Amino acid sequence: MVSSKNPRASAAWSDELDDIDTQLVALLRANGRMPNSRLAEAVGIAQSTCITRVRSLEDRGVITGYTARTSPAALGLSLQALISVSIRSGARRGITAFSTEIRALPEVVELFFLGGAEDFVIHVATRDSDHLREFVVSNLSAHVSVASTRTSIVFEHVVN
User: Fold this and answer.
1) Taking a C-beta distance cutoff of 8 angstroms, is the pair 105, 139 a contact?
2) Which residues, in sequence order, are CB contacts of 84 under 8 Å at separation 6+?
3) pLDDT attached to residue 146
């Protein structure tokens, strides 16, 4: 999982990116394994300049990591859901512990901590509806911090 929190990242990092940096970021988002030689060629700069720029983007927190995206269905997890979770008002001090505990569960694909009506949205991948029900009942409904949950089945997940 890649976190979008990076203490080195400037709030205005996009203002600091020139055209070449923007192109490099777009290319690496599309294919994080693209070799430096192809990156350099694609944006029209020398390979040494390219690697320096990519390292600078990493150091500045613009690029926060590289990851392999997997297909949950190919891993036998054909049912995906988004579960909205509201934390009991008396349990607000335990939000960090709840987040850490839930993030560690193998079914969790992504976890979003929100401001608004719900406190969290949890993206999960499960084998089937029985597995999903067991996940919600065992890990959320029975959790002392959880006030309520709402589960929505994902029909299609497109990563942009």
Assistant:
1) yes
2) 117, 118, 120, 121, 149, 150, 151, 152
3) 95
